Every structure is written in structure tokens, then in C-alpha cells.
Amino acid sequence: MRTSTAVALLILVGALGVAHSQEPGPNLLVNAGFETLDADGRPAGWAPVWARDAGTATVTVETTGAPEGTRCVKVTHTGSQDWSFAFPDRFAVRPMDILRISAWVRSQDLAGSAEIGVVVTDARGEALNWVYGARRVPRSAEWSRIGGRLVMPPGANHIQFRLTGAGIGTVWIDDAELRRVGNVDDLRAQWPAEDASVETESVRVRLDARTGVIAVTDHRTGIVWRQAAAGTSVVLREVRTVGNVLTIAMEDVANDLVIRATIAAKP
Questions:
Q1: pLDDT exceeds 80 at position 158
Q2: Which of 24, 40, 165, 186 is the most exposed place for a label (fewest CB within 10 A)?
Q3: What is the pTM of this model?
Q4: Radius of gyration of the chain from Cα atoms?
């Protein structure tokens, strides 16, 4: 939002913390720790590794060094183009669904890039995004847990989990997860909020409860400043007005954070 010294406002933002509005459901990925092997010694239930340059990618199940359990998967790629190691099932979703994605990963001699993410397809089966919600694999030999929340975009109908990359390098993965958390619209229904405003002779502050956008009107000049929309995954959890003070709490669902702010309209 544009600001001006002529607008009499006091804005305090704080109490930034982790939200726990909805707990994740069970892991959608079967054999996510690669402890079960098929008759050929490959991770049971997982698709064979794919590479654009045929024959340049291999998958090996290792029995030492796993961060959890006894096994992990190593993907080695010697080509210059892209590759993927995927869970073959596709899971139905709807727009604004919230999911959590994560995995243990490490890498070695990673000249290109690697990441975990999901393929998002529409109702016709056409890809909307091949690496949605990508979380990058660090260039580090040490195991680290990467992941976060995903909010499904408009048109989303199905998703598929993949470890993907491009270029030469080796990547290890273990204990991958893809879990349903909820839906942004369901959260909005859980915490219904009405538009609110505070006003003095100098200024009026109005909050749009649906979008979380704040508009400030300077009564002395007639100028109106409107905040840029914070994003479709922001949900208002609390709105209170006391005198000329507006207090709000909003959840950034995609980043799993709660932000609290107090706005005082000065006389």
C-alpha cells in the first residue's frame, strides 16, 4: 500500500507465528520411505525413473545412511536435460485445497537443479504446472528436510508427486510425504468475518473481510490509498474495532503463518 506522511495512522504488526488451523491427514504416498522393494529390487509402488536423454538416469536403493528407517533412494543423472522420479498415482483436488509436501533430501555434484513438487492437471488432464510448489534440493551432502504448504490454483483437478531435476548430479530422497490439510474456502467459512472500519475527522480505514485489503481515505484531500491484495490464500481469523483502533489477525495459509496487526486512526 502506498503511504504518505499526511495520513494520520499508527500501524503495529506483530505476533508472527505458526498457524495450526488444520492438521494434515495421512500420507498419500505409499512406501514413502522406500522400505519395501519389488521382485526386481526397486522401490515398490514407485514409477521407474524417467530422463529426456534416454539411459542417463538410474535409481539405486541404498541401505546405509538413511535419515529414517533403513533404506533411501539415490537418483544419479549424467545427462544435460531434465529427469523425474515420480509416485505414479494422481490424486483428485479442487481449487484452494491445501496440501503439505516434504521429503528428506541431499545431493552431490549437482551441476544443475533438483526439486520436489507436484504436477497439476485440469479436468481434461492437461498440465497447468509441471513443478507446482517446487522446493529446491540444496547443494549439500548433508540430509535436510525440505517442504511446505501448497494451495491449489484455479482449474486444479489432479496432482502427482515428483522429484525432478535437470543437468548432471546425484540426489538422495527419503520419507517423502504429500498430505491433505484442508481448503481455504472452508477456513473462511470457519472464521466468518464482516467488513470493518474505523474513522476520525482526518482519516477513514476500511477492511474488506473477503480479500483482507485495507483502504485508507484521507478526508482532508479525498485521496484513497488501497493496499495490493495479499493473495488468495490469506484468511481473516479475527477482526475487532474499539474506538478508532482496528485489530486484525490473518492467516497466510500457503506459508502456515498468522499475522496480527493493530491500526489506529489518529484524530
A1: yes
A2: 40
A3: 0.82
A4: 23
SS3 255: helix
Mean pLDDT of the chain: 89
Residue-level length of the chain: 267
SS3 label, residue 163: strand
Q: Which CATH number fits domain 50-181: 3.30.590.10, 2.60.120.260, 3.60.15.10, 3.40.50.720?
A: 2.60.120.260
Residues 6+ apart with CB under 8 A from 179: 24, 25, 26, 27, 28, 99, 100
Q: Supply the pLDDT for residue 34.
A: 98
DSSP bridge pairs for 76: 58, 170
Residue matched to cell numbers 533412494: 73
Name the phi and psi angles at 255, rounded to 5: -105, 5
Cα–Cα distance measured from residue 187 to residue 250, given in angstroms and rounded to the nearest whole number: 11
Q: Which residue is listed with cell 495479499?
A: 230
* C-alpha torsion 152→156→160→162, nearest 10: -60
